[in-house]
Amino acid sequence: MMTLAMGNKDEELKVLQIRHEEKFKKRLSDMGIYKDAQVKIVKNDIPGPLIVDIKGSRLILGRGQAQKIMVEGV
Q1: Could you state, in order of their start, the residue ranges of all structural domains in the chain?
Q2: Which of 59, 12, 10 is nearest to 31 (CA)?
Q3: How far apart, in whole angstroms, are the C-alpha atoms of residue 18 and residue 62?
Q4: Mean pLDDT calculated for residue range 9-22
């Protein structure tokens, strides 16, 4: 298990857990990031935000947000 922020470009990951308050979890869920969802990292340059692909849609997440999302490789 690792954070989304630790993933590499083109890596496909499965969301295991979101470590934050319910309001944040709801917001991510509305964007398609929830437990068992699969995401693909499009861009993860340090410093800067992450770009992830979820079901064909691209989302930009801040590094702090990505560090609260626990994932594993698919």
Answers
A1: 2-73
A2: 59
A3: 14
A4: 94
Kindly report the three-state secondary structure assignment for every residue of the chain.
CEEHHHCCCCCEEEEEEECCCHHHHHHHHHHCCCCCCEEEEEEECCCCCEEEEECCEEEEECHHHHCCEEEEEC
The pLDDT confidence band at residue 58, using thresholds 50, 70 and 90, is very high
CATH superfamily of 2-73: Ferrous iron transport protein A (FeoA) (2.30.30.90)
This prediction has a pTM of 0.89
d(CA 23, CA 29) in angstroms, rounded, equals: 10
